[in-house]
Amino acid sequence: MEGLCCGPGYASPSEAIRAPSEKLLYTIAIYTGTGIQKPDYLATVDVDPNSENYSKVIHRLEMPGIGDELHHMGWNACSSCHDDNSMSRKYLIVPGVRSNNIYVVDTATNPKAPNLYKVIQGSEIKSKTNLSGPHTVHCLGSEIIISFLGDAKGEAPGGYLHLNKDFEIIGRWENSMGDIPFSYDFWYQPRHNVMVSSEWAAPNTFMPGFDLEEVGHLKYGRRIHIWDFKKKKPIQTMYLGEDGLIPLEVKFLHNPNSSHGFCGAALSANVIHFWKSENGNWEWEKIIDIDNEPHSDWPIPIPGVMSALLVSMDDKYLYINNWLHGDMRQYNITDPHKPVLTGQVWMGGLLGKAPIVNGVKVAGGPQMYQLSLDGKRMYVTTSLFSTWDNQFYPEIRTKGGVMLMIDCDVENGGMKINNDFVVNFGDEPNGPSRCHESRYPGGDCTSDIWL
Amino acid sequence: MKKITIANRNNSTYEVKGNRPLLLELRALGLDLPYGCQYGGCITCAAKLIKGKVDQKSQVALNNRQINDGYVILCVARAKSNCTFDIGVESHDKLYRNPFIDPLAPHELKSDIATFTEIKDD
User: Fold this and answer.
1) Which among A211, A302, A397 has CB closest to B104?
2) What pLDDT digit, counting tens, does each position of A406-438 carry?
3) Residue A142 has what pLDDT?
4) Residue B24 DSSP code
5) CA distance A391 to chain B (A)
6) In angstroms, rounded to a whole number, what is the distance separating the alpha carbons of residues B111 and B113?
7) pLDDT band of A2, cuts 50, 70, 90
8) Do residues A266 and A282 touch, judged by C-beta distance below 8 A?
């Protein structure tokens, strides 16, 4: 599936768009926090419409023990080392947020049935780097950095773990955290020598669950940070205030020449657009503001909880979710200052707009999603994080998570839930599990960065 | 030795020394318990103390309401007397609450931010 001449990935975003369609995807599924005493696992889902197993889990790679809370993951290599034919996109790096363990999974030897290649013990990471609470994984060239949200005791701001291509701990990646109070997601854009990072909270704050009062006590983030990527230190902070409460996922456009990027502020349910101005300073503006929605059982209107965000490979569409409302939205961002709503679908959520989709009662709401390289197929899962699920969607414990697919119209805009695809993780052999982030073996819209 | 009774496992009993976290002591005796971070920060191993005393000074996950409701973080808590617990998610009826529908009072927050007197607005 990869480019023919070189290393992993593609020469450019436009080449990536022309790649063959995905036939498999991997998603993590958790039992941590569900009451089922089984390990979390990496599920292989068959997404080949011509396969007899289409829309089914065809393999489950269990982790060695219980209690990891697998969450996000990333590849050992991407288009950032497309010129290096000694590298290949072979290993998926899968951290456990609670255990601090990092699992390296070989997906190439048998793509349908990946196997565990290496475990980096959480205790080793703590003792060598004083980090805990791993989240986002990016490769940079042949090496790997992973954001961690806390120190070894679970206190903010955490930092960045640096691994070499053999998955050995080099140490901390950053030279300084500056004044950064919290960590979460990050993305980099090498041609501008820039990295951007966002803020969730300390592991000791978010892991036990969400309390609104802790936002007022400044236990949750409201800033995004611009880094000098080569010097490995933060150089500018953008204070978002009430417009940017809990800024989570952060992405640049895929075009490596662009400095435009977006961050979803989960609690404010706003999209923040940022870019480098002509004088070299970074600026930001709020471009999307999702209204809170009234609900008869709630004393205050329900915030959207925009927990994720994604840009199509052609940089034409921005996708957002409102986990508590239950909708996914597509915006045309041809002009990134003026997004235009072009699509919307509903699945689950607290507003009761689509309680049953494709015959499955949806517990939770649209939460994590991954988009095919051609921009036409978006796979969406419904669980956020075990403790937060348990607070807002307690029925997910018995119903489990769901994966659905949305057909996206890349020409005219528009979204439609595909009626032939549904993976009900409530029916898993060991009982209801909850699926979260997905990755495709040949690349997807959140795996590749171009140098 | 301290006798630990698990009420929601047919009142099964275990003898522990009380010098190590209950999670380690009980798992070593064959009791299958959930856990996550193993340092008192993540709530996955919470159990409900029905009777007895524990020392869980090093936990940082519970707010004061959860503590008042009897929740104990087994990965750091040590038994100080004979204890009776409910374990697992069946014991979590009061552990998880919708924070918008049922907010915490100032004295119910985590200990580092809880306040025990009303601050009046001028």
Assistant:
1) A211
2) 999 999 999 999 999 999 999 999 999 999 999
3) 82
4) H
5) 5
6) 6
7) very low
8) no
Q: What is the pLDDT of residue A1?
A: 45
How high is the pLDDT of residue A141?
Answer: 81
Residue boundaries of the structural domains of chain A: 13-439
Per the CB < 8 A criterion, the answer to whether A425 and A432 are in contact is: yes
Contact assessment for residue A98 and residue B44, using Cβ atoms and an 8 Å cutoff: yes
A157 upstream amide cis, omega within 30 of 0: yes
Closest CA to A326 of A342, A299, A303: A303
B122 pLDDT more than 60: no
C-beta atoms surrounding A435 within 10 Å: 29
Top residue of B9, B27, B37 to mutate, by most chain A CBs within 10 Å, is: B37
Domains in chain B: boundaries? 2-96
Asked if A391's CB is within 8 angstroms of B61's CB, the reply is no
Task: Identify from A100, A132, A387 which residue to disrupt to test chain B contact, counting B C-beta atoms within 10 A and taking the largest count.
Answer: A387
Smallest Cβ–Cβ distance between B109 and the set A209, A213, A387 belongs to A213
Interchain CB distance below 8 Å, A208 and B101: no
**Strand B83-86 relative to strand A41-46: parallel, antiparallel, unpaired?**
unpaired
Backbone angles phi, psi at A134, to 5 degrees: -70, 145
Residues of chain B contacting residue A212, judged by C-beta atoms under 8 Å apart = 99-100, 103
Q: Are A148 and A158 in contact (CB under 8 A)?
A: yes
Residue A288 and residue A308: Cα distance in Å, rounded?
14
**Minimal Cβ distance to A33: which of B44, B63, B109:** B44
Q: Is the peptide bond before A203 cis (omega within 30 degrees of 0)?
A: no
State whether B36 and A207 contact (CB < 8 Å).
yes
Q: Which residues contact A218 (CB under 8 A, 6 or more apart)?
A: none
| Residues of chain B contacting residue A213, judged by C-beta atoms under 8 Å apart | 99, 103-104, 106, 109, 113
Q: How many CB atoms within 10 Å of residue A195?
A: 28
Question: Could you say which DSSP state residue B104 is in?
Answer: P
CB neighbours (10 Å) of residue A124? Answer: 14
- The yes or no reply on domain B2-96 and CATH 3.30.2350.10 is no
Per-residue pLDDT tens for A219-232?
999 999 999 999 99
- pLDDT at position A6: 83
A387: which chain B residues are within 8 Å (Cβ-Cβ)? 42-44, 96
Q: What is the pLDDT of residues B54-111, one digit of tens each?
A: 999 999 999 999 999 999 999 999 999 999 999 999 999 999 999 999 999 999 999 9
> Does B110 sit within 8 Å of A203, measured CB to CB?
no
Specify whether the CB–CB gap between B61 and B67 falls below 8 A.
no
- How far apart are alpha carbons B75 and A2 in whole angstroms? 46
Q: Domain spanning A13-439: which CATH class is it, in words?
A: mainly beta
